[in-house]
């Protein structure tokens, strides 16, 4: 990767969302994580799907996407693979769907595959795969069997013990983690006495979740470090200082998502800030920051 920054799934579509913004270049990012993709096309949730909060954003898009066949056959051939790395994002409602979508991406030009295990398991009454270590491990193991590409497991913060879940995923064959996914939240219109989001609840992202994300990354790092498993740390990154904090907590790379909505040129500023920090502290490479946090 040419940069430690990763554009997060859902925030840049299938890599083309920011090409029309003057001054933006994919060359400023190390990788782009494509929009979550399922086996069949999905229309997504009813509106409202997005709601701004004082410290971030609630979203309940509902995995709207054209389906894996269309993505692999029509979208992926048009991406510029010389400019940056591309990571597919696999979502599903059953283990069989995860297998199907992962297998299709394995025979494509993407550089890696991210598994979104925060999806509800329809066969288990809607319990999210990622909130149960056993189910998380089953998804990772199943996907591991059908791809030789690097496998990144996206961990949910909405669980009791994220470190235990990470340990099980490592045993099942994950190559890396992205941490964290959104926290669940709700917005209410007091005058109408109704929920604002059409799905009633949505994922909270943005600066409000950064303290939670930092702790979760550090907890996962304790498990991942002995195995050499890297982490994409994410959750509320809006400045170079934010990115550096995630690196210190144990991240190898840093995801940028909600911040792009109000500053599409944020990545250039973060990269420059990281370079200035390294120079100021006499460090030669960004990897020297990973896990360098000193606890009291």
From TrEMBL:
Subcellular location: Cytoplasm
Reactions it catalyzes: (S)-dihydroorotate + A = orotate + AH2
Cellular component per GO, a single term: cytoplasm
CDD domains in UniProt: DHOD_1B_like
Keyword Endoplasmic reticulum: no
Function: Catalyzes the conversion of dihydroorotate to orotate.
Record GO terms (molecular function): dihydroorotate dehydrogenase activity
HAMAP family cross-referenced by the UniProt entry: DHO_dh_type1 (MF_00224)
Entry note: cofactor: Binds 1 FMN per subunit.
Assigned EC number: 1.3.-.-
Residue numbers annotated as active site: 119 (nucleophile)
Record Pfam families: DHO_dh
Family of the protein in this entry: Belongs to the dihydroorotate dehydrogenase family. Type 1 subfamily.
Pathway: Pyrimidine metabolism; UMP biosynthesis via de novo pathway
UniProt-annotated binding residues for substrate: 35, 59-63, 116, 181-182
Binding positions for FMN per the UniProt entry: 9, 35-36, 89, 116, 154, 180, 206, 235-236, 257-258
GO biological process: 'de novo' pyrimidine nucleobase biosynthetic process; 'de novo' UMP biosynthetic process
The keyword Ligase is assigned to this record: no
Keyword annotations of the record: Cytoplasm, Flavoprotein, FMN, Oxidoreductase, Pyrimidine biosynthesis
Cofactor(s) recorded in Swiss-Prot or TrEMBL: FMN
Domain Dihydroorotate dehydrogenase catalytic: 3-278
Name recorded for this polypeptide: Dihydroorotate dehydrogenase
């Amino acid at each position: 990767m040419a940069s430690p920054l990763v554009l997060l799934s859902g925030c840049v579509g299938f890599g083309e969302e920011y090409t029309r913004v003057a001054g933006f270049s994919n060359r400023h990012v190390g990788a782009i994580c494509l929009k979550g993709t399922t086996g069949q096309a999905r229309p997504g949730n009813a509106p409202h799907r997005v709601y701004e909060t004082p410290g971030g954003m609630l979203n309940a898009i509902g995995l709207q996407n054209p389906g894996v066949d269309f993505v692999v056959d029509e979208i992926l051939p048009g991406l510029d693979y010389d400019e940056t790395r591309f990571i597919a994002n696999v979502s599903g409602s059953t283990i069989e769907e995860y297998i199907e979508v992962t297998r299709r991406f394995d025979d494509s030009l993407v550089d890696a595959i991210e598994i979104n295990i925060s999806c509800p398991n329809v066969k288990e009454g809607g319990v999210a795969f990622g909130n149960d270590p056993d189910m998380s491990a089953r998804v990772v193991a199943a996907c591991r069997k059908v791809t030789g590409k690097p496998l990144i497991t996206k961990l949910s913060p909405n669980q009791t013990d994220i470190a235990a879940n990470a340990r099980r995923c490592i045993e099942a064959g994950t190559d890396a983690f992205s941490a964290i996914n959104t926290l669940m939240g709700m917005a209410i219109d007091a005058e109408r006495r109704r929920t604002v989001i059409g799905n009633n609840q949505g994922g909270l992202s943005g600066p409000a979740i950064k303290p939670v994300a930092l702790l979760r990354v550090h907890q996962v790092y304790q498990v991942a470090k002995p195995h050499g498993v890297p982490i994409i740390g994410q959750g509320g990154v809006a400045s170079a200082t934010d990115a550096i904090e995630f690196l210190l907590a144990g991240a190898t790379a840093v995801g940028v998502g909600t911040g792009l909505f109000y500053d599409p040129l944020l990545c250039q500023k973060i990269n420059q800030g990281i370079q200035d920090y390294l120079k100021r502290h006499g460090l030669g490479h960004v990897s020297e920051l990973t896990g360098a946090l000193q606890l009291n």
